[in-house]
Amino acid sequence: MPKKTKSIANKDKKIIHQSRQLFLKSEIKDAEDKVVYGQVNEILGSCNFKVLCYDSVERLCHIRNTIKKQKEKVEKDTIVIVGLRDFDDKKGDIIYVYKKEEATQLRDRKEIPNFISNNDFGEDEVTDDEIAFDFDLI
Fold it and tell me: Is the confidence at residue 17, as pLDDT, over 70?
């Protein structure tokens, strides 16, 4: 007869969700003008991302090793803090990754613009005049 492969002790373990304190870019020392908020536009691979920063510049950003070691998941439309490079304005480093709950807290504190949601960035609503297909013709 086969033995039980799963331990009975694992059933008693409970998942504990830890909430972390909201981290703002103003808390970074000596880097007030070298740090901006941004939103991931595209995942390029090899830890590279295209990030649309809130100073209206799209940058090629590389994720830092500390974030990789923390196993933070960076997906499209994720809010991040980008550290700017001195020698190139079009490149940066992802310093911090926000979760969706933290992004709503940032909007409430007016750190990031209110018109930006978690799913779309800067997309305007389509009006009836812009629709190319008319359903009344069918």
Answer: no
For the domain made up of 29-112, give the CATH fold: OB fold (Dihydrolipoamide Acetyltransferase, E2P) (2.40.50)
- Reading the block at residue 86, the tokens are 């001195």
- pTM, rounded to two decimals: 0.69
Q: Is the dihedral of CA 123, 63, 60, 30 positive or negative?
A: positive
Cα–Cα dist 30/46, whole Å: 29
Evaluate if residue 34 carries a pLDDT over 70: yes
In a 3-state reduction of DSSP, which class is residue 71?
A: coil
DSSP state of 8: G
Contact 74, 80 (CB under 8 A): yes
The stretches of 1-138 forming alpha helices (DSSP H) are 65-69, 100-108
* CB-CB neighbours of 29 under 10 Å: 6
Output Rg (C-alpha) for the chain, integer angstroms: 21
Q: Which residues contact 96 (CB under 8 A, 6 or more apart)?
A: 23, 67, 80, 81
Chain-wide mean pLDDT for the chain? 79
